Amino acid sequence: MIKQLVAVAIAASSFAAVAAPETYVMDGSHTFPRFSYSHFGYSTQLSHFDKTSGKIVIDKAAKSGSVDVTIDMKSVNTGSALFNGHIQGEDFLDTAKFPTATYKSTKVNFDGDKVVSVDGNLTIKGVTKPVTLSVTSFQCMPHPMLKKDACGANATAVIKRSEFNAGKYAPYVGDDVTLTIAVEAIKE
């Protein structure tokens, strides 16, 4: 009887550890928000941000979590130093007044054990709008090099830049902007 009680207590404590929320810190060298848009219908331009920070909390047992991301808008990388400066200007990102953008989740949506979307609020240039990120891939496992648990995901959404006071030259330069976020995060 005592052995059974000890076994139940060990199992319960193991389950409690698994069921607890887990916090992951974004790996800045493997997390890159990208954005693409139509440039006069000639081509689809693709750019990214080099500096992103944040945390992801996942409670697999409760099927809940949170995402809190800050993007350094001055780290925009278009592939051209001249154009980086242009896109940081008042007509677009206005990084002098608004050096960061943020995304704060309101709900993390699961299908089984997988995160499939995140509802939240995106703030760019001081304007906050609800945005749902569709998660196209999601995986948590021990990181083979760091020997710590890690999670990674790819997420996407389409926003209208004019809704964030960045609509200069629309519709010639596309108003629809596709956000694609590759994220990797390491367990604290």
Q: What does this protein look like?
A:
The radius of gyration is 20 Å and the shape is elongated. By secondary structure, the protein is mainly beta. The chain is built from two helices and eleven strands, in the order αββββββαβββββ. The protein has an eight-stranded antiparallel β-barrel with strand order 1-4-5-7-8-9-10-11.
Comma- or semicolon-separated keywords:
188 residues; mainly beta; elongated; 2 helices; disordered N terminus
Concise structural overview:
With 188 residues, the chain is mostly beta strands.
Task: Please give the order of strands in the largest beta sheet.
Answer: 1-4-5-7-8-9-10-11
Tell me the fraction of residues in β-strands, as a range.
Answer: over 45%
How many helices? 2
- How many distinct beta strands? 11
Order of helices and strands: HEEEEEEHEEEEE
Summarize the main sheet.
8 strands, antiparallel, barrel
User: How would you sum up the global shape?
Assistant: elongated
> Which regions are unreliable across 5 or more consecutive residues at pLDDT < 50?
3-17
Structure classification: mainly beta
Cα-to-Cα separation, first versus last residue: 38 Å
Radius of gyration: 20 Å
Please estimate the helix content.
10-25%
- Average pLDDT confidence is 92
